[in-house]
Request: fold
Amino acid sequence: SSSFIPFQAYIGASLRGNKKEAVIAAATIDSLGKAFAEGFQMFKYNWDLGINRKTLSYEGKFDLEADLAEWQSLKGFYDRYGSSTDKRAYEALDRVVKFNTNPWVKYSQNAMGAGDALARTIIGRYEMRMRATRAAIDKGVDLDDAMAVARETEENFRNEIFKLDANNRYIVSDKAAKMAGDEAAMTRALEENFKGFELIANIPGMKAFFPFVRTGFNALNLTFEHTPLAMFMDKYKDIMKGKNLDRYGIRPEDLPQAQALMEGRIAMGSTIMGMA
Reply:
């Protein structure tokens, strides 16, 4: 879904007759090649992390390395103080843990985590290009030349969007880009009445199940944003009225682009439904 974002923003800006925002969206579309190239590098990096049983770049909710280390540290305790029944129980569970963390059993989870990193990196690169284009226009660069200037200056905005991790890999840190990445990766935290489902993750054995609940809810929510029903959602009302922007990680200067994206999503979704 991340690849559609600049196209949807362009459609929305065109419908609103906002040439400035259309140029910014067009400049973002122009960045697709670089964005996907860096995104696939992060996909490979995270795939390798998963295969080697290490924590992925955006796996903030659960730390696999720390969890495994804590589990393995219990062995000495059971060996020294446990009864024969305790030891057999630990050994049985340890075999289950080793099976479930085997790289070949976890391949689908690795793919999801690596895809998550790919989507977030692409979103971050979009944000770099958008900010570079807006800055160029605000400095008086002609709209027809803004794309070329942004292409040359986008790296100046990298440190606003990304930060380096321990392995010198760029991880999205900007609030707006992080929230957009959560949306694209279907990992946005559940809100209001649905937040109770977050408690599923605290039930023993349900950590692995919870992401599928959250993903399904977020997929439905994102689908609604591509229909006219979005106009009844608080997010649509807030963005169109310029209210509660911090809740969505939107800077005031980026509000027109966010409004264009909302309109573009509805237009694209309605067109597809009409064709069907």
